[in-house]
Design a protein that fits this description.
- The protein is of the alpha+beta class and about 130 residues long.
- The protein has helices spanning about 35-50, 120-134; strands at about 10-15, 60-70, 80-90, 95-100, 105-120.
- The protein has one domain (about 10-134): Roll (Thiol Ester Dehydrase, Chain A), CATH 3.10.129.10.
- It is about 25% helix and about 40% strand.
- Strands 1-3-4-5-2 form a five-stranded antiparallel β-sheet.
């Protein structure tokens, strides 16, 4: 790492709820709302963005832990702001507080952990798994 992520560093993602990120089982009884997997993905992206400037060119961060409480629906057309704030750094592991809200209310909160990895080493590990599978 170029620098150690500091407590309080933050990242943000703003998304609009639409056909690409709403629940796939919406029908006449179930309204179309933001799907939990997409909400979690954008909370992870916000965390990734929060520490991107701390990483060397050959490093990336990967998610290793997610605990998110989905508190409220976000309706079609709503703008959702996903935020991640660094709580703690322990070597290559960074812990974040994550939260999301729409224009009306909080819709999610939780904890997320990311690990800083060396991309080449990671790629070698993936290659060994592919070979073992073949």
């Amino acid at each position: 790492m170029k620098s150690v992520p500091r407590t309080g560093m933050s990242g943000e993602q703003v998304i609009e709820v639409g056909p690409s990120n709403r629940i796939s089982f919406a029908d006449a009884l179930m309204p179309a709302v933001l799907a939990t997997p997409w909400l979690v993905a954008h909370l992870e992206y916000a965390a990734r963005d929060a520490i991107a400037g701390c990483l060397e060119e050959h490093e990336r961060s990967v998610g290793t832990y997610v605990e998110v409480e989905h508190l409220a629906p976000a309706v079609e057309g709503a703008k959702v702001t996903c935020r991640a704030r660094v709580l703690h750094t322990n070597g290559p592991v960074v812990t974040f507080q994550v939260e999301a809200h729409d224009e009306v209310e909080p819709i999610a909160r939780g904890i997320h952990r990311r690990r800083v990895i060396d991309v080449e080493r990671f790629a070698r590990r993936v290659a060994r798994k592919r070979e073992a599978k073949a």
